[in-house]
Amino acid sequence: MTLQFKPNETFRRDFTYRNSSAAILHFPFPFPEDQYMYSVNIEPHVKGGASPAYDHVFDVDEHYVAECRERALVLAEDPKRCQVLPHMMAAQWDTLELLMESLAADYPEHFSLTKAGDLWTWVNRPLGIHQSFTFGKAETLPCPPFEYITRQAQGDFTLQDQREDNLYVDGGMVTTQADWSLEFDIGMSFHEWHGPVPLAHEKGVFDRALKYLLRLQYGAPVRRLNWTMTINPRLDTSPENYPVWGPDKASVTPENVGQKVHLRVELQTLFRLPRSNAILFGIRCYLASLEEVARVPKWGKRLHRVLRDLHPDIQAYKGLLRFREMAVDYLAPLDDGAELSKGIQSELTQL
Amino acid sequence: MIASGPIPVRIHEIEQLSPTLKRFAFEPLHGGPLPTPSAGAHVMVTLRHEGRVMKNSYSLVSPPESRARYEIIVRHVAQSRGGSRFLHQNVARGDVIEIGVPGNLFPLAAKARKHLLIAGGIGITPLLSYVPALKARGARFELHQLCTAEEAPVFEKLLAPHAAGEDIFIHGNGRAAFDLAGILARQPLGTHVYTCGPRALMDAVVSSAAALGWPPGKIHRESFGDASGGLPFKAVLAKSGIEVQVADNQTLLEAMEAQGIAAPCLCRGGACGECKLDVLDGEVEHRDDFLSAEEKASQKFIMPCVSRARTAQVVIDF
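^ inputs. structure came back:
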């Protein structure tokens, strides 16, 4: 598929972000079943699978250029959205190597990487970047290596150091987050930064997930999908900016719910990094309005059932209380109650 | 990179370092770079000989930046289970073998303010990849290598490329003359200690450091488990109805594989937990570093890559 970038779309103020038909089919719909509950839904991050979003190590789509520009805007307003603690320098270079090698291998028409020993040359055609630098020498790049490469990637990234049989979030680039703050969480352990999540602690989800991640092997990354809902196609829903986006929740009406309310999906990927033995956590955010989701009949019906029957604690934690009923009412007429196939696949080849 | 093993490699170079030590250099058979290794990483080497499949893990001794070739050093031990003897006697330059993607159960601690490295004999191997990585990071370290007097020149030569002198010490007179407690006691706050070598040495480092009040999170030991043999025993696999005879020089995992059973495994050294099996009957002699003390005492689990039956027979839910 040839990507047609949409460099001028926006994620703030006039919100011109929209998904093409191809992008809707590319959307990683997060519900394999009609009910939703927390689980350790982690699987190997191998190419291919139920969603086209799984076809590449790091997924690049039509929103790439616009998302990189949005990230630059957020960083200009609040530079602390990118922070890496000093002991994570090896992990910074690991991240740069992994992203550059993966993007160049997966999208040779858009990215290329050539190496002559430690002298690397990186070309990013969509953003018009041509950079030669010495691998391992931070002063040869315009900014530190982790910031440099994650400014050129969609989705947020955090770096976890592994020590004392635990993981610590010791760095990150976080500008497209679902209401959590790197500035607040940096340095926390696995159970600390997951502290606010309801129900899952009692189910032992985090104990098992941590044990699994401590054993994560280099060369064998894993992934999971997570979700919430956002009003307007806004990437930066940070606690720092709550006064900007919080009031949006009051703007939903039965008339605009289909366009205003977006299903927000995170394709989360976890990579063991080689030099640092740290873990890179990718949180790639996808947004689709209810109207867009419902263009895939299976997805519209299933979303209706999930939202209708969602556990009240999860409704509250995900911040859906003000508009969930309107969303359910919007989707209900589209749901004939037919039995739906298990799994997230759209079962369509085109829209 | 996303790399699923095994990776076919060609033996590019073999160097006899001493009567019992050989260094092997591998290059990828199909070209292209190998996965980026890490300091302290090991690879699982798969060897095939006369219908037998042998899998051994060896620490990489090449520097972490080396993606054109990997190097390992192998000691030929008298009670070899086959792998090291085969590598020493049957493998020649140009031969093709398979290796797995590097794993690391002995990584450097990113927050350490100083790294104290203590190795015994061939236990030096993971530290040979540590030293260039520590130097590249500008990290502070101190290395002590314990060995016999006759092997001291071998290790001096191996460490020579890294020896800026004052921070690398070779002790050729064995443990008796080595002031372990004194060295541990004089380290600055924030030091991490790493040890690799004979179990007795590693136990001494861990217990001495603990006795001096070092926090457990600052004490690191190489974990390949203790996979040397023991008394033969029989494993009954209850679900499949297969009986597996485990010979004195074989692990349970190897005996299962020899019968064509695809058992899950990863590190093959009692550390990662991947091969854990449920025990229905019989007593287990635990040799792994994965199960907790309570799990070991319960006698409900076995890590077949290293642990054995203490009874003549063990019944496993597999």
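The mean pLDDT of chain B is 89. The radius of gyration of chain B is 20 Å.
thumbs up if we can close this ticket
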